[in-house]
Amino acid sequence: MYGKAFAPEYQGALRDMSVNTAYEDVLETARQREHGAAEAGNALELAQARLAVAEACRRLGRLDEADAAWRGSYRAARSAEDKGAMAWALWSGGTLARQRGQLNAAVRWLSLARDLAEQAGEVVAYGYSQAGIAETLRIRGDQEEARDLHEKLLAEARKRGECRHTVWALEGLAQLDRNSGDLDSAWRRFAEAAELAEGGGDERGLAWALRGMADVLSLRGEPDEALCLLSRGEQICRRMDLSSALAYNRKMRGNVLFRACWYGEAARTYREAWDMFRSINEPRGAALARLGLLKSLDKLGRPRADTERDLRELRDTLDSRELRHTRKMVEEAIDELADMAA
């Protein structure tokens, strides 16, 4: 039996905030609490408030503010000598690093968060950190290691009846299944994640699950149904101010349109996603949207030499040590064009 979703990153005086509170509202409330804690000289409350500020800013795409906030949270937690609060701050920093495409730093911060959480007996922070490591490994291309960790996390989440953790683990495994070509398994996992998220009131998890289901439907040749699911997910993202999730939703819409051979609309949609990712300084998403845009323009008759040049430039912007999976996708697109020209 699963309980309702909650947001453990909202702590202390902020504990009563809903997991579905819009992030502009979270930020306003957390800033007020931060000011009050600073005036009162309460280091632990200051760490908790700054953690919420960091997470709200990260979700809103204000990444420099998020970086300052998680570091401030860590300093306050260390001053309070609270290892649990220190772990949460490092978790936030690791999650931000992943969003910025700094995958090695993400693993480092999240591993430190996991170790501190274990020392403090902070079970939820430990699980969040492990989940963050698993997701980072998957994005980096370490598929088998990521699958093993996701499986362990899923078993633990099911045992404790934690809605959000179960949803996250299911979505991670579903993405791995999709990447390996097992669409039936991917669909089952995404669909279960969507059902659990909706039942548990986890709109964030639902938005990501809907995106995954749309991807599978598109790959099966059902673009209209896929676009309907993406529209539903987009409404959630806009209501909650989920800047990054909204950009990925838009990029997936481009994928669906491209696969349906609606190249003009796909190009416009990829360009929108590219602009959105660049505005929040998210290099992985920006690279994927740019890749989709270039492939769409090629289908629309753009000179092949121009597309090949831009793809090579895009490839060279991607660090092979961190965004190697994304770089591999660009290299595959370059090879495809070369094969077509041969």
From TrEMBL:
SUPFAM superfamilies: TPR-like. One of its GO terms (cellular component) is cytoplasm. It comes from the Bacteria. Its main location: cytoplasm. Transmembrane segments: none annotated. Keywords: Cytoplasm, Repeat, TPR repeat. The keyword Secreted does not apply. It is found in: Cytoplasm. It holds the Pfam family TPR_12. Belongs to the Rap family. This is Tetratricopeptide repeat protein.
